[in-house]
Amino acid sequence: MIEVNQIKKVYKDGNFALKGVSFKIDKKITSIIGQNGAGKTTLIRILSTQLLPSSGKASINGYDVVKNPYKVREITVSIPQEARPMLWYNSIDLVRMYLCARGMNMIKAKPVAEAAIKRVGLWDSRYKLAGDLSGGQKRKILVAMALASDADVIFLDEPTTGLDPLSRIEVWSAIKAIKGQVILTTHYMEEAQALSDDVIMMEKGKVISQGSVGELLKSFYGLVRVESKRRIKGRTSYKVGNTWISYVEKKKAESFVLKDDIIKPISLDDIFIKKGVNLES
Ligand SMILES: Nc1ncnc2c1ncn2[C@@H]1O[C@H](COP(=O)(O)OP(=O)(O)OP(=O)(O)O)[C@@H](O)[C@H]1O
Ligand SMILES: [Mg+2]
């Protein structure tokens, strides 16, 4: 269980990155989503004891992240956004060394590391040095480390950025296989939808909503999104760039649209649009 209570963070240069964030996470997989600069990484760094909050409280399984950082580190794993494995070892050795650093004995660590490397789809290149692997394959080694650990809580900051579609699905399946609670950040709405029991949406240092994908999309039930050059009269519409986004009843959609309009199913993107946030493509 992760409890966050009124966490604020002001960086040294005066940047107010978190403006009083509160939530509880008790579900198995939770995604934190939000635009660039929303405060996701700042929050993950505070929860994984790499950064001190300016004020507020947070705890992981009852352990305060400021007062009890060593205990928190024992029960958590954090894969940072910019992390890369050491380049001059192979993937099995990297996972094995990581497990040993966490206190597992060398002999026991071998089969555990091998199973994790298999699970993320790196078995065929297990003896290659990490430096000779692609960016996506390097990322998979880090996910294998989290998978192999017996941590209660795993933080993954953008675990699938830069991965091809197949690798992404492999990593999703590895994430689902993690035994502990997982908190991940992502810019891919379909990833949040496919993986999470709960989604936390952040915007400019604040949490703007939390719930299951179903709960968050409840107000869009029975609707589809129409992307058009014109506003559809009588329907809720938002302007994003040069496009009008309107919501119309699924059953009537065909009667509303013109030749170049695009009809799309509702996704988590629509919550940002409804909140009036300008989406980046
Ligand atoms: N070390 C730092 N010093 C000063 N400001 C920082 C620092 N790190 C982040 N910030 C600022 O804090 C805010 C939140 O940044 P953060 O990295 O937490 O966002 P994010 O949601 O993870 O974004 P992204 O999706 O781009 O990874 C931004 O305005 C950023 O410029
Ligand atoms: Mg980030």
3D structure, described in words:
Helix content is 31%, strand content 28%. It has 281 residues and is an alpha/beta fold. The protein has two domains: 2-216, P-loop containing nucleotide triphosphate hydrolases (Rossmann fold), CATH 3.40.50; 218-265, no CATH class. The strands form three sheets. The protein has a six-stranded mixed beta sheet, sandwiched between helices. Strand 7, helix 6 (165-177) and strand 8 (181-185) form a beta-alpha-beta unit. It is globular. The protein binds adenosine-5'-triphosphate and magnesium ion. Residues 11, 13, 15, 17, 34, 36-42, 81 line the site of adenosine-5'-triphosphate. Magnesium ion (MG) binds at residues 40-41, 81, 157.
Topology diagram in text:
Blueprint: E1 2-10, E2 16-25, E3 29-33, H1 40-47, E4 55-60, E5 63-64, H2 69-75, E6 76-79, H3 91-101, H4 106-119, H5 135-148, E7 153-157, H6 165-177, E8 181-185, H7 189-195, E9 198-203, E10 206-211, H8 213-216, E11 223-228, E12 237-240, E13 243-249, H9 253-256, E14 262-264, H10 269-274
Parallel strand pairs: 3-8, 3-9, 6-7, 7-8
Antiparallel strand pairs: 1-2, 1-4, 4-5, 9-10, 11-13, 11-14, 12-13
